[in-house]
Backbone:
């Protein structure tokens, strides 16, 4: 990974931290979950509006570090308008992207800014910060499944 690419990744992450997209609590959600990363102290809440198998809205609130907040912001952008199956595929690819074992070319896997999360791979202690929003999204999905049983 070149230094230029690192700089680009850092700029994207800082921009999402400064101006998080889809930020703020949502009153009329269909799914919600809270996530907590004890290592860093990151806390966030994900709010979803899911209609059939379409993710219509993704919002979040957070008291967390820059990596966590920018990951949540990028996730909200990436998952809005996706079907649940498409979102699952994105979730899997982000998991691959953040796994240190794989030498993936992030910019080939992703057209969008999510590729910037690949920059986090160099900092093993921060990977949980980046994955917390994604795991909280899954928790929100499963929370609904449990409540309808
Ligand atoms: Zn963190």
Residues:
């Amino acid at each position: 990974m070149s230094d230029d690419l690192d700089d680009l990744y850092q700029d994207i992450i800082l921009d999402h931290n400064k101006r998080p997209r889809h930020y703020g609590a949502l009153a009329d959600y269909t799914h919600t979950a809270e996530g907590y990363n004890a290592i860093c102290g990151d806390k966030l809440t994900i709010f979803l509006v899911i209609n059939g198998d379409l993710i219509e809205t993704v919002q979040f609130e957070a008291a967390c570090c820059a990596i966590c907040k920018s990951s949540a912001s990028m996730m909200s952008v990436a998952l809005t308008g996706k079907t649940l199956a498409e979102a699952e595929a994105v979730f899997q690819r982000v998991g691959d992207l953040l796994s240190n074992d794989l030498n993936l070319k992030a910019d080939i896997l992703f057209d969008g800014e999510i590729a910037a999360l690949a920059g986090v791979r160099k900092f093993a202690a921060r990977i949980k910060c980046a994955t917390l929003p994604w795991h909280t999204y899954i928790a929100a999905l499963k929370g609904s499944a449990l409540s309808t049983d």
Remarks:
- The helical segments are 3-18, 66-79, 84-97, 106-109, 127-147.
